[in-house]
Please model this.
Amino acid sequence: MNSDNILMLKSAFTIAAKTGAGAVLLHADPMDDLIFEEKMSKKFDLIILTKKKKFEASEDHKSSLLSRAKSVLSLPRINLTRVSLIKIATTLAISRELIESNAKIVFAVGDTSGLDLIQIVDTSKESEFIAGKGLSKVSESIPPELFQAVLNLVIELADKGREGKAIGTIFVVGDHERVMQLSRQMIMNPFKGYDEDERNILSPSLKETVRELAAMDGAFVIADDGTILTAGRYLGAATEESNLPRGLGSRHIAASGITGLTRSVAFVISESSGDVRIFRDGRIIMHIEKAPNKK
Model:
């Protein structure tokens, strides 16, 4: 590990210890390895953030930060701004109950040139990183691994679209019986007749199918075990538009309405902006802006 990254890490760990932070979330991708010979305080947890599947030189080393980490969180494999990365990581960490919803956490993030930003986030307060108070309740609706899989998929769809064209769609996850009662089919169900293991959102082989179907109008409805029940579903539940920021369209109104009447979580991709918003209890609990395209 180069000296600049070591200095940033030591600073992040010192800040966490002195501010009483519950965790340090380390963006590992900017670092060439995770070998850290320095002592580390036990006052906080270490959580690794990465798009990679493994770190070749750091897997078995006795001084690897991997051996000291409480968990490793997988990030979507797309270009992310630092703010979006922090939002996504905070969302995943709270949904997986790795950190408390009222905890103070420290981020160390960067880009290909190395770590370059230390950010303190107080999850008990409304901020640009935490848009709502409903994140801690997500695990009451759907399993954390399903939440992470759908979030990563939605963010990748928002970034890449379909054949270079923007996608706008809704994924409604959890409380599926009630969701189906409050919605109706707009087209023939493209998933009807397939075995459950063939239409599970956790299966990587289903990604391209979902990408193609996301170009249609209507919502995907997903059970809390990850089974996709249908696509092209019309969500007719009404909502008070005053609960939403001005300028949001029919998809966001529909997501607010269905989550206000059920225990589901809705993920909405805005076709116009590529932004992703997550709804629960009729409210936006997270807003993730699309990263600008690199030229």
Observations:
- The chain is about 25% helix and 25% strand.
- The first helix runs from residue 3 to 19.
- Residues 135-288 form a domain with the YojJ-like (1 fold (CATH 3.40.1700.10).
- The helical segments are 3-19, 82-95, 138-141, 144-160, 176-181, 207-213, 250-261.
